[in-house]
Design a protein that fits this description.
single chain; 359 residues; alpha/beta; Rossmann fold; 2 domains; 6-stranded mixed β-sheet; 10 strands; globular
């Protein structure tokens, strides 16, 4: 086949690949914004942006779509490319979904501790699993697999902050403000999210500044994560060996290239037990299970609510319901698993239940 013909065929495939992803987006509705009134804190309202309603069940669906489009439009992915990702699970689930849509092989490099239901979902969408014992090696292993297969390491940790259009184009920040438009406090006092790659916080923080909004961004970070340490002291870039958070999807042992601390107004470090207790309390309030990173976000929201109330302030707070709890039945919702790790989550559950409950 001539070089010109090969290039034309590749461009034809690329156009069809982009069309399929855009068509999938057009078939999808926006995610819900759930309002939670706080009777004990009059004038302060909490909203949950429910990202669990995406086709692959988590916030990472947005990121995976953006990463695939970014890689396609850079012509890093072609019709025969094996796509590789380093992931704690949810991003890989979503990327496996898009890889199968395009007829591509997909390999997820994941820590061996990743919850089994996530691994099952990756395989359900046609992905393959490559587990590693040391989470810090996922990056190099992904690079090695890409080289061995002649594939492409899609690298969420590097490209998350640039693959999403932070100016608008229906990103998560624009969606939040559109849905808040008719509320009593349409411009939230705070938006609270976690950081795994840093892409979501970069998108929201940049959007707030570009649109000249007064809302502030708080990033909730697991206690055993480097991000909040780096925020306080830019010289800190790596956690000591053996120090790792138990909350999947957020928190990292190293500062990722996509984490942009300059657009973050505040960070709150959250112990694992408090994340799980908050997760449990919110699940009881909603009547359905949510994941651990949602608990991390909610714990940080509770701190902000209490501070606003003490200062006599009113307003709204928006946070993310990142994924459902079905993926964590054998971990965060398993009493034996929690006891084996010495996590006493009950005091946090009681505190958050009080925040969410009747006056």
């Amino acid at each position: 086949m001539s070089e010109g013909k090969a290039g034309e065929d590749r461009r034809t495939w690329l156009r069809e690949a982009v069309r399929r992803i855009e068509a999938d987006y057009n078939r999808s509705a926006d995610t819900h914004l759930i309002r939670l009134d706080l009777p004990r804190y009059p004038g302060i309202t909490l909203y949950l942006k429910d990202e669990s309603s995406h086709p692959t069940g988590s916030l990472k669906h947005r990121l995976a779509r953006s990463l695939f489009l970014y890689a396609l439009c850079n012509e890093w992915i072609g019709p025969d490319t094996c796509v590789i990702e380093a992931s704690s699970g949810s991003t890989a689930v979503s990327e496996a979904y898009f890889a199968r849509m395009l007829g591509l092989r997909f390999i997820a490099v994941v820590p061996a501790t990743t919850a089994q239901p996530k691994l099952d979902e990756i395989r359900f969408h046609g992905g393959e699993i490559h587990a590693v014992d040391d989470p810090r090696t996922v990056y190099q292993v992904a690079h090695d697999l890409a080289r061995q297969t002649g594939g492409h390491y899609i690298d969420q940790f590097t490209y998350a902050e640039r693959a999403t259009d932070w100016r608008g184009n229906n990103n998560i920040a624009e969606s939040i403000f559109h849905q808040m438009a008719e509320e009593e406090h349409p411009e939230p006092s705070w938006i609270v999210c976690g950081a795994g790659t840093g892409g979501t916080s970069a998108t929201i923080g940049r959007f707030l500044r570009y649109r000249r909004l007064s809302s502030q961004l708080c990033v909730a970070d697991p206690e055993h994560s480097i991000f909040h340490r780096h925020f306080a002291d830019r010289s800190q870039t790596m956690l000591p060996e053996g120090c790792a958070a138990m909350i999947e999807g957020i928190g990292r042992p190293r500062v990722e290239p996509s984490f942009v601390p300059g657009v973050v107004d505040r960070m709150i470090a959250v112990p694992d037990a408090d994340s799980i207790g908050a997760m449990r309390a919110l699940s009881a309030r909603l009547g359905r299970r949510v994941g651990g990173s949602t608990g991390t976000n909610l714990w940080a929201c509770a701190r902000i609510v209490e501070e606003m109330h003490a200062a006599g302030q009113q307003g709204s707070i928006v946070t993310l319901l990142c994924d459902g709890g079905e993926r964590y039945g054998c971990t965060y919702y398993d009493e034996e698993w929690l006891a084996g790790r010495g996590l006493d989550w009950r005091p946090a559950e009681a505190r958050i239940a009080g925040l969410l409950g009747p006056a």
